Amino acid sequence: MSRQAESWHAALHRLQREGVPHALATQVTSAGSTPREPGARMVITADDVFDTLGGGTFEWQTIEAARSRLSAGEPGMSLEAFSLGGRSGQCCGGFVNVLLEVFPGSPVTLALFGAGHVGREIVRLAAPLGWRIVWHDSRDDAFPSWGEEIPRLECRRTTDPAAAVATLPPGSHALVMTHDHAEDRALVDALLRRDDTASLGLIGSRSKWASFRSRLIDAGHAEAALARVRCPIGDSGGDKRPYAIALATLAELLPLTADAERPDQRGLAPAVLRATFQRATPGT
């Protein structure tokens, strides 16, 4: 475990901006002798810890609980109760409740293949949405310099479509729009073979898709798999400007990402909170 000097609030701001999975642990109640006071916080990632709740077994157990939920991809809130003399085996013997808020990182990963005019406009338009964008292109110097200023954007140069697709996390939304039809077809073939993308869109005309479809059937893909491919994408009503096509493409994609995160279900049930604060208040 690596403990970093960065404060919990600085780490929280940075990790949320970058879309990195992390957990915020907040001591919300205490009774008796405890290492820290209510309001103490720490931030936990898969590899690092920022700030402290006082150390000892109780803190280690908090870190383990956070990392267990991070590795399982379980977002939302939970309440961890620690009897320091019981569960944690610490001599101070107090009682602590820790609110654990798990942020799984960016709720959507957009895998964008192609850094041409439409691809660039898609990146600009998607930047405020909080998605992780993994941008691929096989050409040298294809990516614009302004890409370095966009949070959660990863630019990857790759000449091997299958290898590029293999690096994507499960549940990615893929858009294929490279400068080369053969590369597009190889990417669609590799994405269909993975069979775990959340959605798959291909730029181009209906005649392009008819040609691709025939070759993909010859490559062994079933009709059910081919039905998952959306082509053409970006129906802008005849407006062929890159911005218009990008805008239409994102409008088609947004409903497909709507269930990736449900912020309305993140809170703790009122009964859980009432029981917690009753236990922590002397004389109740």
Output the keywords.
284 residues, alpha/beta, Rossmann fold, 2 domains, six-stranded mixed beta sheet, six-stranded parallel beta sheet, 9 helices, 12 strands
Number of domains: 2
Dominant shape: elongated
Query: What does the main sheet amount to?
Result: 6 strands, mixed
Sequence of secondary-structure elements: EHEEEHEEEHEEHEHEHHEHH
**Architecture of the largest domain in CATH?**
3-Layer(aba) Sandwich
Strand content: 15-25%
CATH topology of the largest domain: Rossmann fold
Counting DSSP H or I runs of 4 or more residues, the number of helices is 9
Per CATH, the class of the largest domain reads Alpha Beta
Strand order of the largest sheet: 1-4-3-2-6-5
Q: What is the gyration radius calculated from CA atoms?
A: 24 Å
Unreliable runs: none
Say how many strands there are: 12
Approximately how much helix is present in the residues? 25-40%
From the N-terminal CA to the C-terminal CA, the straight-line distance is 39 Å
- Under CATH, the homologous superfamily of the largest domain reads NAD(P)-binding Rossmann-like Domain
Q: Structural class from helices and strands?
A: alpha/beta
Mean pLDDT: 86
Protein name: Xanthine dehydrogenase accessory factor
Domain XdhC Rossmann: 110-253
Domain XdhC- CoxI: 16-76
